[in-house]
Amino acid sequence: MGNFKENNYEKIVELFKLFGEQERDYSIFYANDYPIPYKGLTIYPVQVDLYMYFHSLVECLLLPHMTSGDINAISMSYFDYLVYLAKEKESPQYISQLFYLLQIVLRIPGKDEKGNLNIDIIPDGKKSILRIFNETYNSQDFDRIRKIICDQNALEMPDEETHPDIVKAIKEVEEYKRKQANVKMCSFEDQINIVVAKSSYRRDECIKMTIRSFTRLLERVDKIMHYEIYTLLSPNLTKEGQKNITHYMAAEKTRKERYEENRTEQNEINKKLQV
Questions:
Q1: With 70 as the cut, is the pLDDT of residue 261 above it?
Q2: Helix (H, G, I), strand (E, B) or coil at 37
């Protein structure tokens, strides 16, 4: 960060410290691609050049542990669930993913000069806690860290509140819509090329962006393109079709709104299949 941005960042951090460690709105950090301080840690947003490596590790943050079907998991925190998978289910890969992922977002090496681990899981009574350098973090801390990393890098955490059958049905509708549209998502490299082709950004500038900023830019480019196409076609659309044209400045739909929309479409699909 330049001096001006560093000064602004320091002011924002000082303001946040005044409010203690309660739940807080990190949107100003996200919007400016600022790293987020949390109990002695500095959590950085990941840049586009590490997109593929980062996404090869994020599974450790996105496991649907409350709806996994494992009755033992229901009473566990997410962090305890990862430890449980490693010890009881012979699935240590998630802990390995977590260690490498933390090295990326904290920008720290895996070991110190003497070869000691900078990140580790250590016993704390009957449970385990996360150690980073000389500080320890419990399961509640990990929940906060996990959410920050997901929000900071445009990752949608699993929906553990909606009934699994409803989530499954909604996903089936989304899959059906994709098949009907006959569209296969292009590679991430081509997504970069799209932004370069449809904006004033150069390729090297896109690669230096954070994943979150790039993802949101790509989504807005897509919305602008669709809006322009639908606006040109609007004279040939029905009044209902014209009403459904969404302006590219419209707010993103929440998960609940997307569910309601897909549920309505599912009902319409079922009616058609019954005819």
A1: no
A2: strand
Which residue carries 């090869």 as its tokens? 56
Contact 259/163 with Cβ under 8 angstroms? Answer: no
- Specify the pLDDT at position 39: 92
Report the run of H or E that residue 272 belongs to, with start and end.
helix 255-274
Residue 253 has pLDDT above 80, yes or no: no
Is residue 224 very low, low, confident or very high in pLDDT (cuts 50, 70, 90)? confident
Q: Exposure string (b/e) for 141-164, b if CB count within 10 Å is 16 or more?
A: bbebbbebbbbbbbbeebbeeeee
Helices 78-88, 139-152: axis angle to 10 degrees equals 100
Residue 57 and residue 50 in contact, taking contact as beta carbons nearer than 8 Å:
no
Output phi, psi for 137, to 5 deg: -135, 125
Every domain of the chain and the residues it spans: 35-152, 164-274
66 with 74: CB under 8 angstroms? yes
The answer to whether the beta carbons of residues 162 and 259 sit under 8 Å apart is: yes
CB 53: neighbour CB atoms within 10 A?
A: 12
pTM of the model: 0.82
